[in-house]
Fold:
Amino acid sequence: MEDKLDELKARLVEYKNLESAAWVLSWDQQTYMPAGGAEARGRQVATLERLAHETLTDPAIGTLLDDLHPWAETLPYDSDDASLVRVTRREYERQARLPSEFVARLAAHQARSYAAWAEARPQNDFARVRPFLERTLDLSRELSEYYPGYEHIADPLIDRNDFGVKASTLRQLFAQLRNQLAPLVEAITAQPAPDDHFLRRSFPSEKQQAFFLDVVQAFGFDLNRGRQDVSPHPFTTNFSIDDVRFTVRFQEHDPKDALFSAFHEAGHAMYEQGIAQALEATTLAMGTSAGVHESQSRLWENRVGRSRPFWTHYYPKLQALFPAQLGDVALESFYRAVNKVERSLIRTDADEVTYGLHIILRFDLELRLLEGSLTVRDLPEAWREGMRATLGIVPPDDRDGVLQDVHWYAGCIGGHFQGYALGNLLGAQFYAAALQAHPEIPAEMEQGHFGTLHGWLKEQIYQHGSKYTTAELLERVTGSQLLVEPYIDYIKAKYGEIYQI
Amino acid sequence: MEDKLDELKARLVEYKNLESAAWVLSWDQQTYMPAGGAEARGRQVATLERLAHETLTDPAIGTLLDDLHPWAETLPYDSDDASLVRVTRREYERQARLPSEFVARLAAHQARSYAAWAEARPQNDFARVRPFLERTLDLSRELSEYYPGYEHIADPLIDRNDFGVKASTLRQLFAQLRNQLAPLVEAITAQPAPDDHFLRRSFPSEKQQAFFLDVVQAFGFDLNRGRQDVSPHPFTTNFSIDDVRFTVRFQEHDPKDALFSAFHEAGHAMYEQGIAQALEATTLAMGTSAGVHESQSRLWENRVGRSRPFWTHYYPKLQALFPAQLGDVALESFYRAVNKVERSLIRTDADEVTYGLHIILRFDLELRLLEGSLTVRDLPEAWREGMRATLGIVPPDDRDGVLQDVHWYAGCIGGHFQGYALGNLLGAQFYAAALQAHPEIPAEMEQGHFGTLHGWLKEQIYQHGSKYTTAELLERVTGSQLLVEPYIDYIKAKYGEIYQI
Structure:
């Protein structure tokens, strides 16, 4: 069995080498690649994705997994080897349904669609990306059709990122969430809005960067094993446990964008950096699901980065960096400003209360596109209509409307957005468990120390990579199933205090 | 035949996709990759290089080439299709001698060796890289052994970059060159040295960059189809005809380093950008040899970038950017300073007269290492001894001695350096032909216009990619064989005037 396990691992190293190489090319496309490179990049990524897929779905791997299965069953469930066989088997079975030719076709299309989007968004030009998006919808449907027997056509797409989660479950969950959030937004926005005019002053990007790099390193992000760059849409990627990179975008007159994106992406990045070295170059060496990933990013962004203890320590440092911009602004005013709840246009900049509504809008539109009850042509109007119905405002253009998020333009339609909402819920449950284990966390934060929280997350979540499914991990760490209440309770408590409702 | 040609081309696209992906990973390693990424990068590049090699040496390609050969022979020699079959055949036969396993082993080693060098050079730590270099020497010898029947063990290594060139030819050529250059260096350095103390003032890198980006775009480098980054050793790479990148390194107190590196690398980059689009994603879509490549880089660096007409136009602009540093320096003083001939330590910064001697030193050491008459352990001392004998100075440390050039640490020992010396000779011959065709070139340069020169080079050299061998290209463009005289005549004329000897 040792030999077979070694052979499996050697094949997985090859798979990961190809997958990581594809990710380097994609990172480069989003950060540094000149516009002229887009055409070739499409075919280059397609070749790598096709070969990665062929490597993972080689029938020899199927045979090895069959041979190893009985032996792995005798090992402890959470041992590295048992987990490797179990998780690889699941991934193998999922991927083996897709023809490699389709994987290459999808990857080539996605690279080209991304390039079109990167040009179209600043120009507010939905017509430019419409044919790409129509093809993405066709390809997303085609992907689902390789998994016949689904309950909803979105399910196979969701399953890729959040194993086992179904559209029907999410619909119920989101209805519940919406019912809780909508009246809260009503109540809060009926109150006078916190003053945040000072956040529209000029904040040079180099200083924004100096600040957030200090912060994310204090969180635990290791710049010797990672880096930060700039891209049109913030993201995190990794090429090994020791090379994890995130991006931000800078807005001179809105420092919240880069700062909170950096905290958010650093949450993703620390998860990937914290995976046990023993899992390197295996199918286990990545975060287990979109939902758990977002629980980590949103935990660091919001539970830490938008908290009073955090700013008690860091606000004087921010003021020292920006004396002209913030010298006249008290901590409490700043705290209220970065937690201002408003009906706004941009998801990534949305406050914690309205954020879920942005997700629900996208999820609804995705399902309608996939079901065929909405066409891509009608999508911009449906977006505006959805914004009016969900958030009570209408974007003045497509740039800050249907074009704002990269996901549909660089990925599939379906499967991406649910992770953010699940992440909010999971994050609340994980953070509650962290506080229960270590009630000293907020006091430490007030001193600029995050070691206890980071250590606990590493121990409880990061190190395991993909060993456990979302449900298994949640049960292990919190002893509970997925719940809406901890998140809603947190939101009500925090914003009840800020807005005195 | 159409079908077979199409199949060959499709296979070559796959090959190029993998090769280009490997180059993206290598570019990333040299520019942005965090130190932690080195271990994984080695295995990732190795996988890509192995697969690229397997794709190119697939026996099916051999069969296709055999089938296409008689048909290709009926086509005009310089047609795209005849050239594709001819050049691919040559490359196939060369590559098919190497086991893919060796290619992967070499690539993995080179990536790790590069990482060690990048750390060791700033620390002046030859001991750190010595084991890597010893292994590189073993691998370089192993590579040559796959081509039994060579005249000199360096020949197969040289042949990879300069097809058909032999160590014995180079030895003769270099002896001739040395005999011409050594007395010139003697005579010049007996004269009073031009004053260049102002070049050691502080020149902020952002301004250096602004200047050279203006210049290289005026030369003809297209930033929509390329970019410039920073790396420990300047280089140029390309991922398609429309994505060609170069790097420089900045030294605040030595602006010559970045400026002339940028002109040099832009010469390489314009060659790659100027290849005919019809050759994209084939074996023809690259410069034909190291020698011709260096002829282009050194032509733009020296014949243009160190010329009086060039600085007549650009020096006032440079002064305007650096008024405190250069406001008190006359054009003629600056011109003499950037053409100062001196016995110096660093090859990339060497003047045109001593440059060849730096190459000859490296070439001699390579041959001795490969022959076994010099060990890696004794290499630093042999370097010092060679510098004393060749240039009359001794480096105070290994950083500016044996560690200065990346080539041995990221590539093979053997095959890299001859291209620079060949490039000087070829460049002189090409430039003489350009001046004969367009005597107006220097006058245009004085106006900051380079279109005639760039257009002529594109027409005569760039567009053809690898269609012609070095010898064929030289014959087509100049009607001559490789000659030392045009280069020596140029050097004597230019430096005779500057130094009045």
In short: The longest strand of chain B covers residues 243-248. The CA atoms of residues 264 and 301 of chain B lie 5 Å apart. Residues 2-120 of chain B form one domain. Chain B touches chain A through 39 residues (CB under 8 Å).
